[in-house]
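Why does residue order matter? Because the sequence determines the fold. Keep that principle in mind as you read this record.
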Amino acid sequence: MSSVASAVTAISTALLILGLAVVLLLTPVYIHAALDDAGSAAFLGVTPSQAHDLSDRTVRELVFGPATFAFPMEEGGPSFYNAAEAGHLRDARAVFYGLLAAAAVALVVLAAGVVRSGRAAPFWRAVSRGALGLTVAFAIVGALFLVAFDAAFTLFHQVFFPGGNWSFDPRTEHMVQLYPIPFWERTATVLGALTIVLGLAAWWLARRRAVALERGAV
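Structure:
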């Protein structure tokens, strides 16, 4: 396996693991628990089930469209999100779809690699390096978020939302009431932990496969 192919395989492995971790955190099972833990209902002045419904509608538009984010809090009422909040959510959707596209390409690359080189130890060594590299990177980033969450949170938004439309008033704007800072603190922690667990699992399995092939055991 060439050095370029090895690098592409490693990067694809990291992207696929990260994409999977993010998608898992968009499920109601996780989000509802995180909303309750963050006290979203109290910030909004609604019941937990209403907060869950508002979040479910937000996530549906984020993932499936139409991405207008113009739904009301109550039937016949004004839009739950103002224009600036809806604009930021559309920007977040673009970032999310960028990650999904990268993960989809990574899946195709890895599937082709399995077909062409699935019985070659270097392929699985490259997979294991990608998984381990992602694990180490997230351990470092996770430590940064743990010791300096505000600075890391700000840096993340400056990188991915350079337009600057990501700062909102928690006293008046619904997006940061539905998804307050405690929600993001928990989500950053869970995303980091989940990515590390998935990365270590992929590293162990790929390394085991490579060793077996090198020994001629398979």
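The chain has nine helices and no strands.
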